[in-house]
Structures are given as C-alpha cells and as structure tokens.
Description:
CATH architecture of the domain at 1-76: Orthogonal Bundle
Structural class: mainly alpha
Shape: elongated
Radius of gyration: 19 Å
CATH superfamily of the domain at 1-76: lambda repressor-like DNA-binding domains
CATH topology of the domain at 1-76: 434 Repressor (Amino-terminal Domain)
Distance between the termini: 52 Å
Order of helices and strands: HHHHHHHHH
Number of strands: 0
Amino acid sequence: MNRGNDDPLSRYVQRKVKEQHLSRRDVSVRSGGEIGESYVGAIMNGTCANVTIDKLRALARGIGADEMELARIALGSAVAPAIAAVTDDEHSLILVDIRKKVIISSDVAEIARHLVQLSPRERNSVLRFVRKLVKAKVQQPRHRIRKQS
C-alpha cells in the first residue's frame, strides 16, 4: 500500500529537507545512521507504507523536526484529535505503531475509531476498564496439561 504523493508526511519531509538544503545522505548521517538514504527516499516519494516508531524518531533527528509533530503528521488527521490531548512523546509514537496494527485488524480499527470520538473523561473510563481486563487475565491461573503415561 503506497501512501501516495499527496501524503502529508512525504510533503512535510520534502519541505524540511528543501528548507535546510539537505540530501538524503545528510538526513541519514544526522540521524546517526539509524535511517538509510533509501528509506528517507521512500518516505519522501510517498512509497513507504508503514513507518516504524524507531524510523520516525530517526527521521525527526535527521531533518531537525519535533518527534511529536512528525508523529501527528504520520498519523494523519483521522487520529490527530486523540494525539492532541497526549503530552507524552512516547505515547504518541506508540500510536504510530498501533496504526500499523489497525490496518491489519478490523476490530482494532473499530475500537480506535470509537476512542477518538470520546471525551477525555470517557477515554479515562475505557482505560480503567481495559486495565482491569488485563489485570484479571494476568491473575488467571494457568492450567498445565499433564502428559498421559
């Protein structure tokens, strides 16, 4: 799945690179070598379907951009309202990773679609419920299957 030439991330990276007179190699070097020239090119051309959290961080360093801003752009306008309420960089970058999983799983996509429409108070209620579910799952005793002799 190509992001396309009208992709906001592609346009943003192209603009930042042009403003600073950077080459793809410059971006790679400035990232500490954590993102390759071809990967930068794929993002700029809009042909990179799923940018990982690590690559997004490296790209932000390479082009001198704020990680939060880059995460918002990578996620697009559909998820931007949910990210706007998040102040922790790590949470926003986790959402980028979740975006990949949403593409694969329709039930996760539906949950995410509903979550972004909730108020912060309602999302907090959902979060408490999910934490209870996870805690109950962790506390469940695991039964071992005994091998018959």
